[in-house]
């Protein structure tokens, strides 16, 4: 019973701090306002986008609906140090895809991979132009 009362005091303190400091109600901001807080810095900066992408598939063959093998998956989890769903930034300086792209990469064996950006998918960006942004 005493533990439940202590939990209520903590949750009330978080809401009190949020209202007192004029913070918006978001989960990551509530985590900043737990306990005795006088000031909170960096609230107007957005945290990095994190999404669980799983560990990959152990099944190496994709089958068509009639049961025949359709394609074969990579055995390796990383190519040139990149793995699928890494956040990357590509600065392409040559070719018809010149520009700066930022998004999630999907690895391919040949080394040129598609990058999923906010505006859509950009196909065939070489790993030489890509740098990590977030693993």
What does this structure look like?
- The structure is a single chain.
- By secondary structure, this protein is of the alpha+beta class.
- The protein folds into 2 domains: 1-46, no CATH class; 61-134, SH3 type barrels, CATH 2.30.30.
- It contains 2 helices and 7 strands, in the order ααβββββββ.
- The chain has helices at 2-21, 27-32, and strands at residues 61-63, 69-72, 87-92, 99-105, 112-117, 120-126, 130-134.
- It has a 5-stranded antiparallel beta sheet, with no helix packed on it.
- Strand 3 (87-92) and strand 4 (99-105) form a beta hairpin.
- It is elongated.
* Helical content band: 10-25%
- Would you count the extended β strands for me? 7
Residue-averaged pLDDT, rounded? 81
Order of helices and strands: HHEEEEEEE
**CATH architectural category of the largest domain:** Roll
Q: Any low-confidence stretches, pLDDT <50, length ≥5? A: none
Structural class: alpha+beta
- Mass-distribution shape: elongated
Instruction: Report the portion of residues in β strands.
Output: 25-35%
Distance between the termini: 43 Å
């Amino acid at each position: 019973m005493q533990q439940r009362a202590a939990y209520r005091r903590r949750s009330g303190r978080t809401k009190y701090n949020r209202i007192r400091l004029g913070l918006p109600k978001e989960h990551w901001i509530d985590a900043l306002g737990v306990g005795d807080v006088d000031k909170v810095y960096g609230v107007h900066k957005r945290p990095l986008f994190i999404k669980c992408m799983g560990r990959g598939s152990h099944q190496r063959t994709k089958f068509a609906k009639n049961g025949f093998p359709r394609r074969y998956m990579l055995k390796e989890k990383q190519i040139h140090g990149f793995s699928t769903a890494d956040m990357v930034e590509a600065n392409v300086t040559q070719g018809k895809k010149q520009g700066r792209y930022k998004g999630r990469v999907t690895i391919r064996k040949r080394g040129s991979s598609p990058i999923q950006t906010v505006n859509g998918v950009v196909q065939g960006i070489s790993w030489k132009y890509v740098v990590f942004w977030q693993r």
